[in-house]
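@channel sequence for tomorrow's demo:
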Amino acid sequence: MLWIPDIIIQEDASDSGSVIKGPHLTLNSSGWVFSKAQQRLTYTCQLNLVKFPFDTQSCNITFTSMSSDVHTMKLGTLTNDTALTALSELIMITKGEWSLRSMEVVRDRTTNGTKSYLIYMITLERKPMLYVVNFIIPLSYLLVLDLASFFISQSSGEKLSFKVTILLSISVLLLILQDMLPSTEDSLPWIATYCVAIFALVGISVLEAMLVSFLTELGHQCGKKAKGSENAREDIQLEEDFHKEPSGDEERGKVTPEKTYMPLDWPVAHDLLKRILDEVKAARLQAGSKDKDKNERGCCKSLALTVDYVFFFLYLITVVLFLMIVYVSWIKTGF
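structure tokens (generated this afternoon):
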């Protein structure tokens, strides 16, 4: 009979059906006996996802005996850490989104002098390129598009709808992020902070576009009312001048021809004066066309332009500072 030690893995969460023991033993001339077993291991590991997807995780695989104490059985390894890491990389079939960074061994560690523990400290590094291409870069691109939307003319009416479209696109990416991250994480990951911050910045930009649109429309309404009132006053004044009746002395014919301001042929002179005054009115309107935009703009439109310019510069500074902080604190540490 051959005694095989009862070695277990403490972090093992797989069933017993995943273990396949080799049917043969190897015995060499020095007295060493080798027994082989294959196991698909499912084990628990506490992950720190603060820097996801630029995170590096360290997990332990602990070997110990169920019944034997440290005096009966002492666990150890035949190879050093470097050889073990190289061998593990060689025989790994599927790596998925992880790459093996290192594997360290803590030899013969005991707890209260009762049992011997052999601990493999495995360091895994996530491959972030998939998340960068599908998630981080599109969010940055949407933020740049929101900055570029400030150059869209407010009079076109497409600026606000364009910003709302960007906000809806970010909302779709937030739904994808919900499926990526586990809900049991205590601290907020950097990628969630990144998404929420961009969503908040674009949301504030949409509110600013609504305010500017309201002020611009209010300025147009005020300009139209002021222009209509001015034209009405001018028309009334001209009508009073044209249709002003002669005085009592003129009706009685007591005014001498030398002191009469109107020609003797009154209907023809009236038409002539009306044409002259129409030409004067047209010339006056043409001379004031240079200041038309300024008069229509009014105080509301000037305020809208000031708010738009000031907000753009503050928004640009905030975005640049935010991207710098994200790069230094999150992305740079992952490469």
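heads up for whoever presents: Residues 52 and 191 are 7 Å apart (CA to CA).
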